[in-house]
């Protein structure tokens, strides 16, 4: 009988991560599903290619929402978090769980309670990403790559702590009201009520949404985002950058092509539609970019 060595460490993340199925499989990542509610209808999302509601279905429902069934999200239940940890512990003796920002959600605290109550003798560390969506995913991906390479838990956590202040997640969204109604608008509230055909941009700082500025119209969005994407390709400290979108196929494709042309350092550009979870936060038309490295808001908005 052939025996296989267990990994030293395995990574758990949550359903906002926007990792692809291929990344989940290649790096053996375990995900705990976020829940999405339309009224009394409940859906679950593990990542951007595994959800009980498709993006098309989500968009159809979003187009007809009322105050009574405005979409909401909820963190994984304690039972779902426990199941993710049990699955992870079959793969490795040590687990690092990288979750949505504690300043935006209760999942970090809930997971810590699950560890304390259900796994008191297991080596599980819950890490606050201080990010959302692909900003969570890009950290989970980096940690999972290190785990696959045989790095120790301490080495992985030390690198995560070092990189975390330079994780960048930038959104260009046509409507901030979804963030506002979902209670996640943070310090970007001043951009509410932007003029018609003006596109607000925000980013994560200190674990919450912060305003960057506005872009005037679709043509300016393409031009300024193209310039920004070309700039950041030389700023990546890791080998990955994530570009996701909802309802912005033409502009997102243009940005993807710009990144390819500017990519002189062999960075992996992960380009895909986002999960429905992002649509709850940002509405039906959004672009999101996540990378780890230097950032200056003047690269995007003046």
Description:
The protein is an alpha/beta fold and 302 residues long. The protein folds into two domains: 7-54 and 73-164, Rossmann fold (3-Layer(aba) Sandwich); 165-299, 2-Layer Sandwich (Hypothetical Protein Tm841, Chain: A,domain 3). It is built from ten helices and 14 strands. The strands form three sheets. The protein has a six-stranded mixed β-sheet with strand order 11-10-9-14-12-13, with helices on both faces. Strands 2-1-7-8 form a four-stranded parallel β-sheet, with helices on both faces. A hairpin with a 2-residue loop joins strand 3 (34-38) and strand 4. Helix 5 (134-148) runs antiparallel to helix 6 (153-163) and helix 8 packs parallel to helix 9. The longest helix has 16 residues, at 217-232.
Under CATH at level 1, the class of the largest domain stands as Alpha Beta
CATH architecture of the largest domain: 3-Layer(aba) Sandwich
Instruction: List how many beta strands DSSP finds.
Output: 14
The radius of gyration over CA amounts to: 19 Å
**Strand composition percent:** 25-35%
Instruction: Specify the biggest β-sheet.
Output: 6 strands, mixed
**So what's the overall shape?**
globular
The ordered string of helix (H) and strand (E) elements is EHEEEEHEHEHEHHEHEEHEHEHE
How many alpha or pi helices?
Answer: 10
Strand order, largest beta sheet: 11-10-9-14-12-13
Mean pLDDT: 90
- Helical fraction equals 25-40%
Please state the structural category: alpha/beta
Uncertain runs: none
The CATH topology assignment of the largest domain is: Rossmann fold
Could you say how many structural domains there are in total? 2
